[in-house]
Design brief:
InterPro entries: Amino_oxidase (IPR002937), FAD/NAD-bd_sf (IPR036188), Flavin_amine_oxidase (IPR001613), Flavin_MAO (IPR050703)
Strand content: 15-25%
Pfam families: Amino_oxidase
Helix content: 25-40%
Largest sheet: 7 strands, mixed
Distance between the termini: 26 Å
CATH superfamily of one domain: FAD/NAD(P)-binding domain
Number of strands: 23
Structural class: alpha/beta
Bound molecules: flavin-adenine dinucleotide
Cofactor: FAD
CATH topology of one domain: FAD/NAD(P)-binding domain
CATH architecture of one domain: 3-Layer(bba) Sandwich
Protein name: Flavin monoamine oxidase family protein
Family: Belongs to the flavin monoamine oxidase family.
Number of helices: 15
């Protein structure tokens, strides 16, 4: 039995950020990772021409201060994301494909309705303290209310509701009818907005070397990262904890940092921590999504004045340009089954036909395509954290907190998921463990 000071379970951005700070603080750290690679939900492949294609997390924004700070420390470079791409957004519904800010099915009255909804949203968002959401007087009522019900309460027109649903699914969040209004507003507040989703705050930057390079660079600097080593049991004790791998190896440690997503965390056998904590951890859930990526030799959508950003009611809920000639697309949870149920060839053909509907026939002749079914990947079981009506209250204030010597981190432990959540909570877990708190 080896005896590191700290065992970190999971080598995604959270686990690696925690391990890096723990080592810098003088701890002897072992990271155990189930997959044969590090990075978790950030993953990249390299094309012969040198383009690094991202199959997982990709873009960040101005509000992502922990992630941006880490990138600077690692000596990596930030560059503008698709948000700076010239051209116009596209919206695709069964009856129309519209290029421009407003689709043809929105009237002047709908625009006025959207403005009223925006003003009402700003009031809700301002009422939430992102550092202490539990003190919000309206927490329980707003958490029980779906975004859809809240929009009906403020008289959103049917077209404005349809736009909101398209946007929500374009991000691969759950339907507005199945998302907690409190969680929705809390996420916006945590992202530094006082109104609806702000692209500059959330998505205007990306790492030029490829977002998975953040994970790879951190891992290269760590002393002991063990790949293909899934953990299936954690036994926490005040005088030493024991982590057992699926292969039966045991590691005794002074502290354990759990850095795996909500689904895989539920599969672990954990003892020695309170029932309330386990209930809270296991009550979290993910939106399931797939990512479809397609590489061309050039960004041909620009020829038509389109910026490659699309929201759609098709199986692909969105597309956006990842870099020159590369389009990313997400399959949202509400459409995941229809996508995952097909064989690879059919799935790819149908996805390309949808892209052709957006950007023209050239879309059907790619250099290469990739599909990652993150929702049914056993080591992710999802995509990002999702809060259905009632979930915030059920998970409760133990969310993202520690029970020393058991520490938790991961994007799920922040209000809004994302790479920022992974880095922020990873570094916070390390600071807490080093401080003994
Ligand atoms: C398709 C897609 C697109 C995304 N786009 C963006 C984006 O553009 N911007 C953004 O900010 N975020 C995005 N995200 C979210 C972001 O990638 C994640 O929130 C973040 O990378 C999660 O990091 P993490 O360390 O918390 O978890 P993970 O990256 O999931 O890492 C957890 C690690 O734990 C390992 N593990 C699981 N179970 C065990 C076990 N039993 N034993 C040992 N190891 C285990 C896993 O293999 C994994 O390596 C996207 C995610 C996906 C899937």
């Amino acid at each position: 039995m080896s005896r590191p000071d700290v065992v970190v379970v999971g080598a995604g951005l959270a686990g690696l950020s925690a391990a890096r700070d723990l080592e810098a603080g003088g701890a002897h750290v072992t990271v155990l990772e189930a997959r044969p690679r590090v990075g978790g939900r950030v993953e990249q492949v390299e094309l012969d021409d040198g383009r690094r294609v991202q199959l997982g997390g990709e873009v960040v924004g101005n509000a992502h201060t922990s992630y941006l700070g880490l990138v600077a420390e690692l000596g990596l470079t930030l560059t503008a994301s698709y948000v700076a791409e010239p051209g116009e957004v596209t919206r695709q519904v069964p009856e129309a494909v519209d290029v421009g800010e407003w689709p043809s099915w929105c009237t002047e009255a709908d625009r006025a309705s959207a403005e009223k909804v925006e003003a009402a949203l700003a009031t809700v968002v301002r009422g939430i303290d992102p550092d202490d959401p539990w003190s919000s007087p309206d927490l329980e009522r707003l958490d029980r209310t779906s975004v859809g019900d809240w929009m009906r309460e403020v008289d959103a027109s049917p077209a404005v509701m349809r736009l909101a649903e398209m946007f929500q699914l374009s991000m691969s969040d759950g339907s507005i009818e199945r998302t907690s209004m409190f969680a929705h507003a809390r996420q916006l507040r945590a992202g530094g907005s006082t109104g609806s989703y702000d692209y500059e705050q959330w998505e205007n930057l990306r790492v030029a070397e490829g977002s998975a390079s953040v994970a790879l660079t951190m891992a290269a600097g760590l002393r002991d990262v063990r790949l293909s080593t899934p953990v299936d049991r954690i036994s926490v004790g005040a005088t030493g904890s024991v982590v057992t791998t699926t292969a039966g190896e045991t590691l005794r440690a002074d502290a354990v940092v759990l850095a795996v997503p909500a689904g895989p965390a539920r599969d672990l056998d954990i003892d020695g921590v309170s029932e309330e904590r386990l209930r809270s951890l296991r009550r979290q859930r993910h939106a399931w999504a797939a990512k479809f990526v397609v590489a061309y030799d050039r960004s041909f959508w620009r020829d038509r004045g389109q910026n490659g950003l699309a929201e759609s009611e098709g199986v692909l809920g969105s597309t956006w340009p990842q870099q020159e000639g590369v389009l990313s697309a997400l399959v949202p949870p509400e459409r995941y089954a229809a996508f995952a149920a097909a064989d690879t060839e059919t799935r790819t053909r149908e996805a390309l036909a949808q892209v052709a509907g957006l950007y023209g026939a050239e879309a059907t002749s790619p250099q290469q395509t990739w599909t990652r079914l993150w929702g049914t990947d056993p080591w992710t079981q999802g995509y990002v954290t999702q809060w259905r009506p009632g979930d915030v209250t059920e998970v409760g204030p133990l969310h993202g907190t520690h029970e020393p010597p058991f520490y938790v981190c991961g994007s799920d432990q922040w209000v809004a998921g994302y790479m920022e959540g992974a880095v922020r909570t990873g570094r916070a877990a390390a600071a807490a463990a080093l401080g003994g708190g």
